[in-house]
Amino acid sequence: MQPDTPILEMRNVVKDFTTGGGFAKTDIFRALNDISFSIHKGRALALVGESGCGKSTCARLITKIYEPTNGQILFRGKDITEIKGRQEVLNYRKSVQMIFQDPFGSLNPTHTIYHHLARPLLLHGMCENNKVKLRTRVEELLEMVELPSLTADKYPHELSGGQRQRVNMAKTLAVGADLVLADEPTSMLDVSIRIGVLDLMQRMKKEFNLGFLYITHDLATAHYIAEETAVMFKGQIVEWGDTTEVINNPQHPYTKLLISAVPDPDVRFADVIKGDLDYSDNAHHIRSISSAHSQQVKQVNHNHFVRQLAG
Ligand SMILES: Nc1ncnc2c1ncn2[C@@H]1O[C@H](COP(=O)(O)OP(=O)(O)O)[C@@H](O)[C@H]1O
Ligand SMILES: [Mg+2]
């Protein structure tokens, strides 16, 4: 692998789903249309867009739950469709870890936190099967995610949502992941603790040199963790580049629409698009002109690109 090879690259990925359609007819729904992006070690890409635009489909393709209809997904330069066989897939799934929206969903209510962390350590041969060593390692992992060591003896329901999400983060550290796919990791948490969890992820990313895909519907949170941002709408990436560029100098009408919807009074996003038309009043029009597929891309800055409207 070249030193600048991305840890993960999506190259012109298309994903079609066949839906219902009755006996004679099957409808094809294009959930992803020509998606390309790269993720590098120690860096995060925010994939931002409203519900249904295709964000989780990207994550499912990367974890090999789905196969792409077209295009390529490269992990350390290697096409992931070539990752076959039990051991190879197990190794890949160890390197690529998911963190989900529901911090409870991925924890088993009948087991202690100790169990949740010791199990992957053993399963992936990350620690000797020795009680003292396992306990020490589990406590180290808890410390890394800023949880007290006594958390090990608790059950998931005894923790807050934010603490549970920290345990999920500790699980990804336990197996020595290289790439973390965090799918709306804070959207079920109280607003007051979201930033703490994002800050932790930001620190983990740097400290352990992790590549991060941060999936969110909330453009305003992208800058907490992601150097780069890609804005997605109806299966297409409409604008991408440095997060500061995309947020401070948005070009695509859909990005502007997202910004106009940010309710955070501390983030003076509204100023960015002041003087332009009233985005919230024109939402329907903007969505309709943004949905057609377009191949035309304009470079706005060194690392800032915008897809031109079709037609
Ligand atoms: N297995 C599937 N079969 C059919 N349609 C699907 C399937 N998975 C996702 N979709 C559709 O693809 C689109 C994108 O879904 P998803 O990636 O979950 O969006 P997001 O995560 O951005 O909310 C949605 O319209 C969804 O209904
Ligand atoms: Mg989703």
From TrEMBL:
Q: Could you list this entry's UniProt keywords, alphabetically sorted.
A: ATP-binding, Nucleotide-binding, Transport
Q: CDD domains from the xrefs?
A: ABC_NikE_OppD_transporters (cd03257)
Q: Which GO terms describe its molecular function?
A: ATP binding; ATP hydrolysis activity
Against SMART domains, the record matches this protein to: AAA
Q: Does the keyword Transport apply?
A: yes
Domain of life of the source: Bacteria
Tell me the Gene3D superfamilies matching this sequence: P-loop containing nucleotide triphosphate hydrolases
SUPFAM superfamilies xrefs: P-loop containing nucleoside triphosphate hydrolases
The ABC transporter domain is annotated at: 8-259
One biological process term from GO is: peptide transport
Q: Does the entry feature the keyword Membrane, yes or no?
A: no
What PANTHER family does this protein map onto?
A: ABC TRANSPORTER, ATP-BINDING PROTEIN, TRANSPORT ATP-BINDING PROTEIN
This chain's protein is named ABC transporter ATP-binding protein
